[in-house]
Amino acid sequence: MRPLAALFAVLALAACATPAIQPPLTPPPGFTGPAVEAGGLRMDDGARLPLARWTPETGEPWAVIVALHGMNDSRASFRMAGPWWAERGIETWAIDQRGFGEAPGRGVWAGEARMTEDLRTAVALARARHPRAVIAVAGESMGGAVTIAAFSADRAPDADRVILLAPAVWGWTAQGPVNTAGLWVAARAMGERPVGAPEWAVKVRPASDNRLELFRNGRDPNSILSTRVDALYGLVDLMETASMRLGQVRAPTLLLYGANDHVIQREPMRLALERAGDRPGLRTGFYPDGWHILNRDLQAEVMYRDVEAWLRDAAAPLPSGAGAVLPALR
């Protein structure tokens, strides 16, 4: 009876708690609004998000990509893609999203509303700085989920194109009842507790075939290696939004996915694409040799080239010849 009583006590405490998110910030005195600063972007509430920029050496960029990293990563996730695109006249703005890298509230979930508002602000700043350029948003994994949530909302960011790199769509409806119940209780009963990925999962199912880049990322002090339980809860909530609302994104969209993606697996991706249906302007590309972090795979240049070509002409064939994703998952 004692274990049962303890279980009921935990459930009772959990029912009274809510998973933590970062509290709202108050702009400091004299704050004049969002701005581009040296090494960062100032958001609408005064928060500063660190920024990495890769700029063409000569002339104005013909396109600007606002890039969002994945869970527990940082702006450095685009350190390979940014220089490649810059050589072809594309400027990349990669930011640390709130709660990650060197942005405010490291490790604490910022919430969908705050994360999407930050994206709107970043896009508006890029548009103001380069009014004649094609403005695109590239979201990788969690960054892709943030992108879907923002562009499917009533106030979509003022960007011309959306690029989704293995977007995180493993939401509640794809988690199953055991995972859902366990995470619901854990996020409320021990939300601040950090958990790491099991060693067997990291070794057997890596996120990329580029082992050197995985090693570098794991040694990067801006990477987060242990995740708070309540942040995992927030991520699944965000992924559910992305899975349900992919079909509501109105901007022309390119979604790319790899056959070896062991992070966002085939079933959740298939479910999200089936929910989206035959949405006008949604283009997908399936890479038989691709993994999860497509912009750092050994075949990453294949993706870079496809993105560049699609930004130039969304109707033209992709240089890689990548076929549609959904038929490959059925």
Which spans of ≥5 residues are poorly predicted at pLDDT below 50? Answer: 3-14
Widest sheet: strand ordering: 1-2-3-5-4-6-7-10-11
% residues in beta strands: 15-25%
Profile the largest sheet.
9 strands, mixed
Order of helices and strands: HEEEEHEHEHEHHEHHEHEHEHH
**Count of helices?**
12
Q: Characterize the overall form.
A: globular
Any idea what the radius of gyration is?
20 Å
Output mean pLDDT. 93
Helix content: 25-40%
Q: Count the strands?
A: 11
**Broad structural category:** alpha/beta
Distance between the termini: 48 Å
Question: Could you characterize what this model shows?
Answer:
The chain is an alpha/beta fold and 330 residues long. It is built from 12 helices and 11 strands. The strands form 2 sheets. It has a 9-stranded mixed sheet with strand order 1-2-3-5-4-6-7-10-11, sandwiched between helices. It has a two-stranded antiparallel sheet with strand order 8-9. Strand 6, helix 4 (142-151) and strand 7 form a beta-alpha-beta unit.
Concise summary:
With 330 residues, the chain is α/β, with parallel strands linked by helices.
Keywords:
single chain, 330 residues, alpha/beta, nine-stranded mixed β-sheet, two-stranded antiparallel ribbon, 12 helices, 11 strands, 38% helix, disordered N terminus
Q: What's the arrangement of secondary structure elements?
A:
Layout: H1 2-16, E1 35-37, E2 40-42, E3 48-54, E4 63-68, H2 81-86, E5 90-95, H3 112-129, E6 134-140, H4 142-151, E7 161-165, H5 172-175, H6 177-189, E8 194-196, H7 199-204, H8 211-219, E9 226-228, H9 229-245, E10 253-258, H10 266-276, E11 282-287, H11 300-312, H12 325-329
Parallel strand pairs: 4-5, 4-6, 6-7, 7-10, 10-11
Antiparallel strand pairs: 1-2, 2-3, 3-5, 8-9
Helix pairs in contact: 1-6, 3-4, 4-9, 6-9, 9-10
